[in-house]
Amino acid sequence: MAARIIDIAEFPEDALREACARLGEGLPIALPTETVYGLAADATNPAAVTRIYETKGRPRFNPLISHMADLAMAEQHVEFDPLSLKLAEAFWPGPLTLVLPRKPESAIHDLATAGLDTVGVRVPKGSMADVIRRFGRPLAAPSANTSGQVSPTTAAHVFEDLGEKLTLILDGGSAPVGVESTIIRVEGGNVRLLRPGGISAEAIEALLGVTLLRPDGPSATIEAPGMLASHYAPGADVRLNATSVSSGEALIKFANVSVIGEAQAAGMFDLSPRGDLAEAAANLFSYLKLADATGAKAIAVTAIPSHGLGEAINDRLQRAAAPRE
Q: Which CATH number fits domain 237-321: 3.30.1300.10, 3.40.640.10, 3.40.1190.20, 3.40.50.11030?
């Protein structure tokens, strides 16, 4: 039986009641966040967490983010250092995940952390926080899609991919940020950027007065979600920094740039004709899906500026273009 879809704006109480009922049964549900749609289940229930991995086909060495209703709930499960607390107070609720030491008394299950002694925690905006508050326990929630594929930014995206595997999808419209959360880890006074995302590195550096440390290259150690080399991939191959497009390729461009041969593209999509990186981030996954749906053999993507949210956009595109495993 296909998943039931409930519009949160139209039926808010029904949505909350049904969501908590399914979560209480140990079943994963799909629900909107400000970043992308999440596949959520009780982070304290090992059977529920296992169902997340099974539904997505996700490797179990890849940890899950545990979402909290508020900072007070997060403090029940993880230890905050002063810099991480400053970040939480500034950017929560919002698209920032902090990797922090798990408290011994935390009920978050080892399966959700992939056996690590740290937890990625986040306080989301909007209806997901309402669900967590009503449910009373943290929700483990990766993106609501088959592992490694393009993340969903609408309920329709989730239904097309996982609709036959789920019982409930909450529809909150299009995700406004459109890329996953920024992931930060503070260690010994150093602040490391594990994954660029919906909060720009510049905003974090301005708040803390420090320069973020970035990885030199792919790491063999998975400390947080989104660190696999190949990820966020459509069915078609992805070609970056394109200045021309060949027959049979779809084109994704930015800021209305002219591209040689664009008239012969299988489909053409502009992430933001006016050159707005926030608009481009919000459109990224949706346009990758639309370009893939043209049946093109490859998707050519023009260069995207690397500052601000451009860092997160380029991170997702580089992983989408990486050799498939």
A: 3.40.50.11030
| Model confidence, pTM | 0.93
Tokens found for residue 69 = 């209703």
| Angle, CA 134 vertex, CA 17 and CA 3 arms, to 5° | 40
- Per CATH, the homologous superfamily of domain 4-208 is DHBP synthase (3.90.870.10)
Give the tens place of pLDDT for each residue, 57-88. Answer: 988 888 999 999 999 999 999 999 999 999 99
Strand 38-42 and strand 29-31: the pairing is antiparallel
Domains of the chain by residue range: 4-208, 237-321
The dihedral over CA atoms of 99, 102, 107, 111, expressed in degrees to the nearest 10, equals 60
Provide the 3-class DSSP secondary structure of residue 143: strand
Q: CA-to-CA distance for 100 and 185, rounded, in angstroms? A: 7
- Point out which residues pair with 237 in neighbouring strands: 298
Q: Give residues with Cβ within 8 angstroms of 67, minimum separation 6.
A: 33, 38, 40, 43, 121, 122, 123, 124, 128, 129, 132, 138, 139, 140, 141
Asked whether the beta carbons of 194 and 184 are under 8 A apart, the reply is: yes
Answer yes or no: are the C-beta atoms of 300 and 252 closer than 8 Å.
Answer: yes
How many residues does this entry show for the chain? 325
CB atoms within 10 A of CB 243: 12
| DSSP secondary structure of 150-173 | PPP-SHHHHHHHHTTT-SEEEE--
Q: What would the pLDDT profile of 115-148 be if each residue is shown by its tens digit?
A: 999 999 999 998 999 999 999 999 999 999 999 8
* Nearest by Cα to 219 from 195, 186, 243, 240: 195
Which strands form 168-171's sheet, in the order they lie side by side?
4-7, 168-171, 29-31, 38-42, 139-140, 65-67, 118-122, 96-101, 182-187, 190-195
Tell me what pLDDT residue 221 has: 63
Q: How far apart are CA 245 and CA 265, in angstroms?
A: 6
Q: Tell me the C-alpha distance between 278 and 308, whole Å.
A: 9
